[in-house]
User: What shape does this take?
Amino acid sequence: MKRTILSLIALSISCYVAAQQDKKPLKPIDFYRIPSVSDPQLSPDGKWVAYSVSTIDTAKDGRVSHLWMQSWDGKESIELTHGSEAASSPRWSPDGKYLAFLSSRDSKTGSQLWLIDRRGGEGNKLTDIKGDLNEYAWSPDSKKLVLVIGDPANKGKEEPKTPKPIVIDRYHFKQDIEGYLQQLHDHLYLVDVNTKKLDTLTRGDKDENSPVWSPDSKTIAFVSNRTVDPDKNQNKDIFTIDARPNATMLQLTTWKGRDANPQWSLDGRYISYLRSTSDAAYMMYDQSVLCIMDAVGSNNRILTPQLDRPVSDQVWAKDNKNISFIVTDDRQRYLAGININNGKISTISKGMFGITDVNTNASGNWVVLKSDPYTPAELFALEGDKLRRLTFHHQAWLNTVKLAQVSGFQSRSVDGAEVSGILFTPDSIPGKKWPLILFIHGGPVGQDEYTFDATRQTLAAAGYAVAGVNYRGSNGRGLDYCKAIYADWGNKEVKDLLGAVDHLEKMGIADPNRLGIGGWSYGGILTDYTIASDTRFKAAASGAGSALQLSVYGSDQYVLQYENEIGVPWKNADKWIQISYPFFHADKIKTPVLFMSGLRDFNVPTIGSEQMYQALKSQGVPAELILYPNQFHGISKPSYQVDRLQRYVEWYNKYLK
Assistant: This one.
């Protein structure tokens, strides 16, 4: 018997080793196989979770989303929608009879609201509207839905063969994806499930968003900026309105900053919401705190002032006393809770992972989306403080690839700042020295987390140590850490980035003679700042970046930030020139750079990459400029995403190997 057991153990070990050897390093082309799981919604009885899964259609070179259902016990998984037309945003009717969703199937005017009858039958289209249907929510009595619909372009008529001139009269007149902004607004509408009648709830020259119903189905809370010119500030307040045409809205909050995400307690007594810390007209470096008020707007109070971390996704428990919420904290996103009576905050689920979505209802069951460094987001049941995995959409492709080892590290900058980072290495062999790529996150207000990162994993699979660094300006370390770079771009962040590289060199991980750097958006901007400050990097990839900041005023979507943080260029030229130093000191750059941009990017327009490319070419520094047609700030076409990754690998290989 002992021999048999030992034989089985040996066989098991050999099978495991063989399986590991069969795995191949993650390649850019593997991106085609990675699905995306999102938007979990518990059924009223708590027995099912509806959610969206998007996969890549290589023939159409795009992603398509479909609806799935997962049983709470984990035993049954059902795909509800199929075909080339996408379906998304599943929402259960509170009585459990219907599952609503958005789809543009059988529509020439964009997404419409559809219903699947849970008692049987095919989906039925409930609406046939013109304009963008952005959000919707069921009334608790399941008789109506509130919709957020954007005013249709061209007043809903077909675009003429010769488009009319674009007339611009707004202060904020450009926005990535949306393009040039005209006087079009989002408003609230009501649709009756039985009659399909559509009623207008709000109208005018302001926007209304984030509608939520009171438990008695009589009132809707929503968010709106009702100042004279909403383009010139970030103020948003919470309002309520009776769920009937021609009703009058009531303003509940008066904070000059941003209020968001109102949520009713199940007994209708309270509304919780998120509030910005700053009440300035605009503040990039901010974090939300959790607040609560009576349903009529009285007795406002902050629940999480002592936390000093960004709070999001708050959800009421059915006892009307406890609220759960997500906390962004030093490379983690964890689930916490607070008792509204005694103010006690407790940690519910925390670890080397990130929770990105929370959903519950009167059933008492809880479901979350969770990712860790080795697994993209999947659904998990939350039972007390324990997580039980429900879905396995990523397992098939994960079984075929070898992933990098992921660990955290701390470094100290030249001015003494302590900085957190995440390191990816091709394997965990101690003492091995690697060529290093410092790959910088965007934002700047964001953070590198213990969640799955396909880009860094792919770079590590190509034979590099890859470091993500949460430089000052990142969130997750408190408000002062985030605000440290206010009106002082490319200074403290560069110290933090270089300090991390110094640390990894001293640890014997990074080869000082083979250093690369790169990033997208603010990561691309910081790439430009860093290579203009230090010549140690042998290769760089600057994506969607800018360096001559003086020239982007009026060409991108950030005029409100510029005028509030930096000041107008004709009065503060010295400050604008200071933050434009990568361009004005381009003669100090010796690093070969791969510049990239989406040609329809209004976030950080292509001119930022073009100017730096021209500056380096004029000096004979090796540079390439890659332009992706019809792409916005975030490259969305799958073939371009793969192309970008492949170019990263080839560029770094050329100069670092």
